[in-house]
Design brief:
The chain is mostly beta strands and about 130 residues long. Helices cover about 5% and strands about 45% of the residues. It is built from one helix and ten strands. A four-stranded antiparallel β-sheet has the order 1-4-8-6. It has a four-stranded antiparallel β-sheet with strand order 2-10-5-7, with no helix packed on it. A two-stranded antiparallel ribbon has the order 3-9.
Length: about 130
């Protein structure tokens, strides 16, 4: 297990559903006074999480879609998997896209994506 420091302005840290889970769920943390965001069919929106991380060098966090949102509502992540590099210090945001036929409402605290920690190696390009 690797420690990742989280500066969380939200109330919930990501959670693994079981001890064998590869990804942990991350929740929406909308701006104060905003309780939901609607994503219309064909539209993509950036959803905030209220989380800022310090990932150890040599690792990345991938942001992946939740299969339940994809199956039930046709909601996905257009740049999947998105990568958070070890030196990224901004707020984690998740771009959600609605491939469905109905508007989709994201509420504050909804589980919107999964985070997966991976070890990475840089390529030594040789010509």
């Amino acid at each position: 297990m690797i420690n990742v420091k989280v500066f969380n302005t939200g109330k919930d840290l990501p959670k693994y559903q079981t001890s064998a889970s590869a990804g942990c769920d991350v929740c929406a943390k909308l701006d104060d006074g905003v309780y939901s965001v609607t994503i219309d069919p064909g539209e993509a929106k950036l959803i905030k999480t209220g989380m800022f991380t310090e990932i150890p060098e040599g690792y990345e966090i991938q942001i992946r879609p939740r299969s339940g949102l994809a199956l039930k509502h046709s909601i996905s992540i257009p740049n999947s998997p998105a990568t958070l590099d070890a030196d990224y210090r901004g707020e984690i945001g998740v771009i959600l896209i609605n491939h469905g036929k109905k508007p989709f409402e994201v509420k504050n605290g909804d589980r919107i994506a999964q985070l997966v920690l991976n070890k990475v190696e840089q390529i030594n390009w040789i010509s």
